[in-house]
Each structure stands twice: as C-alpha cells, then as structure tokens.
Design goal:
The chain contains six helices and three strands. By secondary structure, it is mainly alpha-helical. The protein has a three-stranded mixed sheet, covered by helices on one side.
C-alpha cells in the first residue's frame, strides 16, 4: 500500500501509528511540524504480521502532493493556516489576521486570556506579545513572533477545534454537480476533436 495526500496532513504519522498498532514497534518515518520532511518515496515499512508468519502488510510513505492550481487567495490562506504550505510563503501576520477572522466567527472567547474581542490583528498580537513576553528592544512588542505563536497554538488545538470550510448539504451537491460537469466536458472534448477530424477528412 502507499500513503498519499497533501503536504503536512499526517501521512508519516499515520504510518507510524499503524506500525505501532500492528507490530507494537516504534516510529519508522520521520515527522515534523512543517511540510517537506518526507522528500522521496521511502522503503516499504511492515505494519502487520500475518498469522502464518509469511509475507505481511507493507506501506510506502510518500512526499506530499500539492494541488497544481489554487483558484483563489482564500484557498491559499486556508492551506497555509493548516500547515500545508511552508510558513515562509505567507507572512505570519496575514495568516494570524485570517485566523482571527475565523476565531471571531466561532467564539471570540477563545483568545480572552490575551485580549478582549477585537477585529484588529495588531491589537491582539500586541496583547499576546506583552502577555507572553515576546518583546524586542525597549520593550517593544514583537508582533511577528506573537503571530507565529498564535498560529502554533491554534494548530496544536489550544484555540478551539473547528473547520475552516463551511460544509453544507447544498455545497456538497454543488461540488458534485461541478465534478460531474467537468467529467462530461472531459469526455466531450475528445469527441469534438474526433468529429472535427472526420469532417476535415471528408473535405
């Protein structure tokens, strides 16, 4: 078997968990908080011993596979916020601002230990920097460090657990219809080319 998916979604962690559950053995794949830890397809790792003692179940760990095209900026922000994009790609303050937007939608009380409810990311980051001691020279708040800290707290589950997507039955049906239409167009293009070729031959 082969474990395939987006960067930094837990493929290597899944392999290690399966190995632990099946063989009671330690991790075989390296893991990390940033995407790109797995650089190539590794050697097969046994995760289950068959009753007969011969063969077994093996799994291949793979590097993350990123989508070839991102349709809009919000999708990019969601992927970056979840850690599927390296933190150096999108500035942490921009990600923190987008995170604040979602925190306010779900529950502004999630950050009440650091600041009253606010829509201003700089206000929240300055309060976090002061509260956590992330200060520069002359006691100036380090908002960049505070933004990185805020992102890590959310990723580790300390600022609520919620989805960034608003999944509804209507949305699911719309996605299904668009995929069906896309498949239909994919089949129609070869037929159109074939008909065009036939018409040219007849001329």
């Amino acid at each position: 078997m082969m474990v395939v998916g987006m960067p930094n979604v837990g493929k290597s962690s899944l392999l290690n968990a399966l190995r632990q559950a099946g063989l009671q053995k330690g991790p075989a794949a390296a893991t990390g908080a940033q995407p790109g830890v797995t650089r190539r397809i590794g050697t097969a790792v046994k995760i289950l011993e068959p009753p007969s003692g011969e063969g077994g179940v093996y799994v291949l760990d793979t590097p993350g596979v990123f989508i070839p095209y991102i349709s809009d900026s919000e999708t990019m922000l969601k992927l970056a916020l979840c850690g599927s994009v390296k933190d150096s790609i999108v500035p942490p303050i921009i990600l923190a601002d987008y995170l604040l937007y979602h925190l306010n939608i779900h529950d502004p009380g999630l950050y009440r230990d650091y600041s009253p409810p606010t829509n201003e990311i700089c206000v929240l980051l300055q309060a976090i920097a002061k509260k956590t001691g992330r200060l520069q020279k002359q006691a100036k708040q380090d908002v960049d460090a505070a933004a990185v800290w805020l992102l890590q707290r959310w990723r580790n589950g300390y600022l609520g657990k919620f989805m960034l997507e608003q999944v509804t039955e209507y949305g699911l049906q719309k996605t299904r219809r668009s995929k069906i239409l896309a498949l239909g167009e994919g089949h129609a293009r070869p037929m159109a080319k074939q008909n065009e070729s036939t018409n040219n031959d007849m001329l």
